[in-house]
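#lab-general

N.A. 3:47 PM
ok so I finally got the sequence cleaned up, no stray characters, all 339 residues accounted for. can someone with queue access submit it? mine expired

B.Y. 3:52 PM
send it over

N.A. 3:53 PM
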Amino acid sequence: MQPQPLRLGRLHFWLIFVLSVSLGTVGAHAQSCEVSADMDDATRNPITAAGQRYFDMAAKGDVASMRQNTIGPLASDFSSVETSIKSHQEELTGAQSKVKSVFLLDASGSAPIPHAEFYCGVFGKNGQTPGSAAFFLDNLPAGKYAVVLIAATGPKGELMFSEVLEQAGPDWKLAGLYIKNAQTGGHDSDWFLSRAHDYKAKGQMHNAWLYEQEARGLITPVPFMSTMATDKLYEESQGLQPADMPAAGKTSDLVAGAATYKLTALFPEIVGSDLDLIVRYESANVSNSNLAYQDNVAVMKALVAKYPEFRDAFAGVVARAVDSSGRDYGTLLAMKEIK
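B.Y. 4:20 PM
back already:
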Protein backbone atom coordinates (compact mmCIF):
# COMPACT_ATOMS: atom_id res chain seq x y z
CA MET A 1 0.00 0.00 0.00
CA GLN A 2 1.41 3.37 -0.95
CA PRO A 3 0.82 6.51 1.10
CA GLN A 4 -1.56 9.02 -0.36
CA PRO A 5 -0.16 12.15 -2.02
CA LEU A 6 0.51 14.55 0.80
CA ARG A 7 -2.09 17.23 0.85
CA LEU A 8 -2.29 20.99 0.86
CA GLY A 9 -3.00 21.80 4.49
CA ARG A 10 -2.16 18.23 5.39
CA LEU A 11 1.54 18.73 4.94
CA HIS A 12 4.29 16.14 4.92
CA PHE A 13 6.07 16.38 8.25
CA TRP A 14 9.76 15.70 7.79
CA LEU A 15 11.27 12.66 9.42
CA ILE A 16 14.99 12.38 9.94
CA PHE A 17 15.02 9.05 8.18
CA VAL A 18 13.48 8.31 4.80
CA LEU A 19 10.13 6.61 5.22
CA SER A 20 8.17 4.59 2.75
CA VAL A 21 5.25 2.25 2.95
CA SER A 22 5.09 -1.26 1.58
CA LEU A 23 2.19 -3.30 2.89
CA GLY A 24 3.19 -6.62 1.48
CA THR A 25 3.44 -10.01 3.09
CA VAL A 26 5.19 -10.56 6.39
CA GLY A 27 8.91 -10.76 5.71
CA ALA A 28 11.60 -12.83 7.38
CA HIS A 29 13.45 -9.76 8.60
CA ALA A 30 10.70 -8.18 10.71
CA GLN A 31 12.04 -6.28 13.74
CA SER A 32 10.64 -6.51 17.27
CA CYS A 33 7.85 -4.31 18.56
CA GLU A 34 5.92 -3.92 21.79
CA VAL A 35 2.53 -2.34 22.33
CA SER A 36 1.80 -0.37 25.48
CA ALA A 37 0.27 -3.37 27.28
CA ASP A 38 3.47 -5.37 26.73
CA MET A 39 5.69 -2.77 28.41
CA ASP A 40 6.42 -2.45 32.09
CA ASP A 41 5.96 0.94 33.76
CA ALA A 42 9.69 1.67 33.74
CA THR A 43 9.72 1.37 29.95
CA ARG A 44 6.35 2.88 29.07
CA ASN A 45 6.19 5.87 31.43
CA PRO A 46 9.27 7.76 30.14
CA ILE A 47 8.02 7.39 26.54
CA THR A 48 4.53 8.59 27.42
CA ALA A 49 5.90 11.49 29.47
CA ALA A 50 8.19 12.59 26.63
CA GLY A 51 5.37 12.39 24.10
CA GLN A 52 3.08 14.45 26.30
CA ARG A 53 5.85 16.98 27.00
CA TYR A 54 6.46 17.56 23.29
CA PHE A 55 2.74 17.96 22.68
CA ASP A 56 2.58 20.60 25.44
CA MET A 57 5.47 22.46 23.83
CA ALA A 58 3.71 22.45 20.47
CA ALA A 59 0.41 23.56 22.02
CA LYS A 60 2.21 26.55 23.55
CA GLY A 61 4.01 27.31 20.29
CA ASP A 62 7.34 26.70 22.04
CA VAL A 63 9.20 25.44 18.99
CA ALA A 64 12.54 26.54 20.43
CA SER A 65 12.25 24.05 23.29
CA MET A 66 11.10 21.34 20.89
CA ARG A 67 14.14 21.92 18.72
CA GLN A 68 16.41 21.57 21.73
CA ASN A 69 14.89 18.14 22.36
CA THR A 70 15.24 16.70 18.86
CA ILE A 71 17.91 14.42 17.46
CA GLY A 72 20.77 16.28 15.79
CA PRO A 73 20.01 16.19 12.05
CA LEU A 74 16.38 17.11 12.62
CA ALA A 75 17.39 20.01 14.86
CA SER A 76 19.66 21.32 12.10
CA ASP A 77 16.77 21.36 9.60
CA PHE A 78 13.75 22.13 11.76
CA SER A 79 11.91 24.53 9.48
CA SER A 80 9.21 22.16 8.22
CA VAL A 81 8.39 20.97 11.74
CA GLU A 82 8.14 24.57 12.88
CA THR A 83 5.92 25.42 9.92
CA SER A 84 3.58 22.50 10.58
CA ILE A 85 3.17 23.46 14.22
CA LYS A 86 2.46 27.07 13.34
CA SER A 87 -0.07 26.06 10.69
CA HIS A 88 -2.04 24.15 13.36
CA GLN A 89 -1.44 26.57 16.22
CA GLU A 90 -5.02 27.76 16.41
CA GLU A 91 -6.23 24.16 16.72
CA LEU A 92 -3.50 23.17 19.21
CA THR A 93 -3.89 26.09 21.59
CA GLY A 94 -6.06 25.04 24.50
CA ALA A 95 -6.66 21.56 23.09
CA GLN A 96 -7.13 18.66 25.50
CA SER A 97 -4.75 15.81 24.74
CA LYS A 98 -4.81 12.09 25.40
CA VAL A 99 -2.12 9.54 24.60
CA LYS A 100 -4.02 6.87 22.65
CA SER A 101 -1.24 4.43 21.78
CA VAL A 102 2.45 3.86 22.40
CA PHE A 103 4.63 1.49 20.37
CA LEU A 104 8.25 0.56 21.08
CA LEU A 105 10.22 -0.34 17.96
CA ASP A 106 13.52 -2.14 18.57
CA ALA A 107 15.88 -1.86 15.62
CA SER A 108 19.05 -2.64 17.55
CA GLY A 109 22.16 -3.31 15.51
CA SER A 110 25.22 -1.69 14.05
CA ALA A 111 24.02 -0.57 10.63
CA PRO A 112 20.95 1.01 9.01
CA ILE A 113 18.19 -1.44 8.07
CA PRO A 114 17.26 -1.25 4.38
CA HIS A 115 13.66 -2.26 5.07
CA ALA A 116 12.50 -2.55 8.69
CA GLU A 117 9.16 -4.19 9.42
CA PHE A 118 7.55 -4.05 12.85
CA TYR A 119 4.49 -6.15 13.71
CA CYS A 120 2.99 -5.04 16.99
CA GLY A 121 0.39 -6.80 19.12
CA VAL A 122 -1.61 -9.92 18.31
CA PHE A 123 -2.25 -11.00 14.71
CA GLY A 124 -4.92 -13.54 13.85
CA LYS A 125 -5.33 -15.99 10.99
CA ASN A 126 -6.81 -13.21 8.87
CA GLY A 127 -4.10 -10.70 9.70
CA GLN A 128 -4.48 -7.72 12.00
CA THR A 129 -6.76 -7.53 15.03
CA PRO A 130 -8.30 -4.41 16.64
CA GLY A 131 -5.28 -3.87 18.91
CA SER A 132 -2.48 -4.58 16.45
CA ALA A 133 -0.44 -2.35 14.18
CA ALA A 134 2.37 -2.65 11.66
CA PHE A 135 5.10 -0.17 10.75
CA PHE A 136 7.23 -0.22 7.60
CA LEU A 137 10.31 2.00 7.40
CA ASP A 138 13.14 2.08 4.87
CA ASN A 139 16.77 3.02 5.57
CA LEU A 140 16.17 3.09 9.31
CA PRO A 141 19.30 3.76 11.40
CA ALA A 142 19.89 1.19 14.13
CA GLY A 143 18.41 2.17 17.47
CA LYS A 144 15.32 2.11 19.62
CA TYR A 145 12.31 4.13 18.53
CA ALA A 146 8.86 4.84 19.87
CA VAL A 147 5.71 5.97 18.09
CA VAL A 148 3.36 7.99 20.29
CA LEU A 149 -0.15 8.67 18.98
CA ILE A 150 -1.98 11.53 20.70
CA ALA A 151 -5.57 12.67 20.16
CA ALA A 152 -5.95 16.42 20.64
CA THR A 153 -9.47 17.79 20.96
CA GLY A 154 -10.24 21.48 20.93
CA PRO A 155 -12.84 24.00 19.72
CA LYS A 156 -11.62 23.53 16.14
CA GLY A 157 -12.08 19.76 16.19
CA GLU A 158 -9.80 16.79 16.68
CA LEU A 159 -6.19 16.47 15.59
CA MET A 160 -4.04 13.38 15.26
CA PHE A 161 -0.72 14.44 16.80
CA SER A 162 1.83 11.70 16.15
CA GLU A 163 5.46 11.62 17.24
CA VAL A 164 8.42 9.43 16.40
CA LEU A 165 10.91 9.37 19.26
CA GLU A 166 14.44 7.96 19.37
CA GLN A 167 16.15 6.82 22.56
CA ALA A 168 19.31 8.78 23.37
CA GLY A 169 20.75 7.50 26.65
CA PRO A 170 18.05 7.87 29.29
CA ASP A 171 16.09 10.37 27.19
CA TRP A 172 13.62 10.10 24.33
CA LYS A 173 14.31 12.71 21.66
CA LEU A 174 11.93 13.88 18.96
CA ALA A 175 12.82 12.28 15.60
CA GLY A 176 9.69 13.10 13.60
CA LEU A 177 6.30 14.76 13.84
CA TYR A 178 3.01 14.37 11.96
CA ILE A 179 -0.07 16.53 12.60
CA LYS A 180 -3.30 15.71 10.78
CA ASN A 181 -6.93 16.68 11.10
CA ALA A 182 -9.23 13.81 12.01
CA GLN A 183 -12.00 15.36 9.89
CA THR A 184 -12.24 17.10 6.54
CA GLY A 185 -14.84 19.83 6.32
CA GLY A 186 -16.52 18.54 9.48
CA HIS A 187 -16.81 15.00 8.08
CA ASP A 188 -15.03 11.92 9.40
CA SER A 189 -13.80 8.76 7.73
CA ASP A 190 -17.15 6.98 7.98
CA TRP A 191 -18.90 9.82 6.16
CA PHE A 192 -16.45 9.73 3.25
CA LEU A 193 -16.64 5.94 3.08
CA SER A 194 -20.45 6.09 2.96
CA ARG A 195 -20.31 8.63 0.14
CA ALA A 196 -17.78 6.43 -1.68
CA HIS A 197 -20.26 3.56 -1.55
CA ASP A 198 -23.00 5.86 -2.88
CA TYR A 199 -20.85 6.94 -5.82
CA LYS A 200 -19.89 3.34 -6.54
CA ALA A 201 -23.58 2.39 -6.65
CA LYS A 202 -24.13 5.15 -9.23
CA GLY A 203 -21.21 3.94 -11.33
CA GLN A 204 -19.12 7.02 -10.55
CA MET A 205 -15.95 5.04 -9.90
CA HIS A 206 -13.54 7.98 -9.95
CA ASN A 207 -15.53 9.81 -7.26
CA ALA A 208 -15.82 6.57 -5.29
CA TRP A 209 -12.06 6.03 -5.37
CA LEU A 210 -11.21 9.61 -4.38
CA TYR A 211 -13.65 9.57 -1.46
CA GLU A 212 -12.34 6.19 -0.30
CA GLN A 213 -8.80 7.58 -0.34
CA GLU A 214 -9.96 10.45 1.86
CA ALA A 215 -11.67 7.99 4.23
CA ARG A 216 -8.47 6.00 4.63
CA GLY A 217 -6.33 9.10 5.12
CA LEU A 218 -8.55 10.28 7.97
CA ILE A 219 -7.84 7.16 10.04
CA THR A 220 -4.12 6.90 9.26
CA PRO A 221 -2.06 8.89 11.79
CA VAL A 222 1.25 8.33 9.97
CA PRO A 223 1.77 7.06 6.41
CA PHE A 224 4.12 4.23 7.40
CA MET A 225 1.59 2.56 9.73
CA SER A 226 -1.19 0.10 9.02
CA THR A 227 -4.00 -1.21 11.23
CA MET A 228 -6.91 -3.57 10.76
CA ALA A 229 -9.10 -0.61 9.74
CA THR A 230 -6.63 0.78 7.19
CA ASP A 231 -5.95 -2.68 5.77
CA LYS A 232 -9.68 -3.23 5.27
CA LEU A 233 -10.06 0.06 3.39
CA TYR A 234 -6.93 -0.65 1.37
CA GLU A 235 -8.28 -4.02 0.27
CA GLU A 236 -11.59 -2.41 -0.68
CA SER A 237 -9.85 0.33 -2.65
CA GLN A 238 -8.07 -2.21 -4.86
CA GLY A 239 -11.35 -2.82 -6.64
CA LEU A 240 -12.04 0.88 -6.98
CA GLN A 241 -8.81 2.39 -8.27
CA PRO A 242 -9.31 3.50 -11.88
CA ALA A 243 -6.42 2.70 -14.19
CA ASP A 244 -6.43 6.21 -15.64
CA MET A 245 -5.82 8.05 -12.33
CA PRO A 246 -2.38 9.17 -11.08
CA ALA A 247 -1.45 7.16 -7.97
CA ALA A 248 1.49 5.57 -6.18
CA GLY A 249 4.01 7.59 -8.16
CA LYS A 250 2.37 6.79 -11.50
CA THR A 251 1.44 9.73 -13.73
CA SER A 252 -1.47 9.85 -16.13
CA ASP A 253 -1.89 11.78 -19.35
CA LEU A 254 -4.60 14.40 -19.84
CA VAL A 255 -5.17 15.70 -23.35
CA ALA A 256 -6.29 19.33 -23.58
CA GLY A 257 -6.54 20.49 -27.18
CA ALA A 258 -3.11 20.15 -28.79
CA ALA A 259 -1.34 19.76 -25.43
CA THR A 260 -0.90 16.71 -23.23
CA TYR A 261 -0.34 17.21 -19.52
CA LYS A 262 1.14 14.67 -17.11
CA LEU A 263 -0.98 14.53 -13.96
CA THR A 264 0.98 13.58 -10.84
CA ALA A 265 -1.71 13.72 -8.14
CA LEU A 266 -5.46 14.04 -7.77
CA PHE A 267 -7.14 14.30 -4.36
CA PRO A 268 -9.90 16.08 -2.39
CA GLU A 269 -9.07 19.05 -0.16
CA ILE A 270 -11.02 21.60 1.85
CA VAL A 271 -10.48 25.10 0.45
CA GLY A 272 -12.26 27.68 2.55
CA SER A 273 -15.52 25.92 3.39
CA ASP A 274 -15.74 23.87 0.18
CA LEU A 275 -14.53 20.40 -0.71
CA ASP A 276 -12.52 20.92 -3.88
CA LEU A 277 -10.54 18.63 -6.15
CA ILE A 278 -6.80 19.28 -6.31
CA VAL A 279 -4.94 18.31 -9.48
CA ARG A 280 -1.16 18.57 -9.69
CA TYR A 281 0.70 18.24 -12.98
CA GLU A 282 4.17 18.66 -14.45
CA SER A 283 4.88 22.07 -15.94
CA ALA A 284 7.74 24.05 -17.44
CA ASN A 285 5.83 27.35 -17.21
CA VAL A 286 5.65 28.00 -13.45
CA SER A 287 7.99 31.01 -13.62
CA ASN A 288 5.66 32.65 -16.17
CA SER A 289 2.43 33.25 -14.27
CA ASN A 290 0.44 34.11 -17.40
CA LEU A 291 1.34 30.85 -19.15
CA ALA A 292 0.90 28.87 -15.91
CA TYR A 293 -2.57 30.34 -15.44
CA GLN A 294 -3.54 29.44 -19.01
CA ASP A 295 -2.26 25.89 -18.48
CA ASN A 296 -4.16 25.59 -15.20
CA VAL A 297 -7.43 26.62 -16.79
CA ALA A 298 -6.85 24.25 -19.71
CA VAL A 299 -6.17 21.38 -17.31
CA MET A 300 -9.29 22.09 -15.25
CA LYS A 301 -11.54 22.28 -18.31
CA ALA A 302 -10.10 19.10 -19.81
CA LEU A 303 -10.33 17.25 -16.50
CA VAL A 304 -14.00 18.05 -15.92
CA ALA A 305 -14.83 17.39 -19.55
CA LYS A 306 -13.22 13.95 -19.30
CA TYR A 307 -14.77 13.17 -15.93
CA PRO A 308 -18.10 15.02 -15.69
CA GLU A 309 -18.96 13.05 -12.52
CA PHE A 310 -16.60 15.37 -10.62
CA ARG A 311 -19.29 18.05 -10.81
CA ASP A 312 -21.41 15.96 -8.41
CA ALA A 313 -18.67 15.49 -5.82
CA PHE A 314 -16.67 18.74 -5.66
CA ALA A 315 -17.42 22.45 -5.40
CA GLY A 316 -14.42 23.46 -7.47
CA VAL A 317 -11.04 22.47 -8.85
CA VAL A 318 -7.58 23.71 -7.91
CA ALA A 319 -4.96 23.12 -10.60
CA ARG A 320 -1.34 23.35 -9.49
CA ALA A 321 1.41 23.53 -12.08
CA VAL A 322 4.63 22.11 -10.59
CA ASP A 323 8.09 22.40 -12.11
CA SER A 324 11.06 20.07 -11.67
CA SER A 325 12.34 22.02 -8.66
CA GLY A 326 9.04 21.70 -6.80
CA ARG A 327 7.89 25.30 -7.33
CA ASP A 328 4.21 25.53 -8.13
CA TYR A 329 1.55 27.93 -9.32
CA GLY A 330 -2.09 27.33 -8.40
CA THR A 331 -5.44 28.45 -9.74
CA LEU A 332 -8.91 27.83 -8.25
CA LEU A 333 -12.15 27.84 -10.20
CA ALA A 334 -15.60 27.05 -8.87
CA MET A 335 -17.19 24.14 -10.71
CA LYS A 336 -19.85 26.42 -12.24
CA GLU A 337 -17.05 28.52 -13.79
CA ILE A 338 -15.50 25.54 -15.57
CA LYS A 339 -17.22 25.30 -18.94
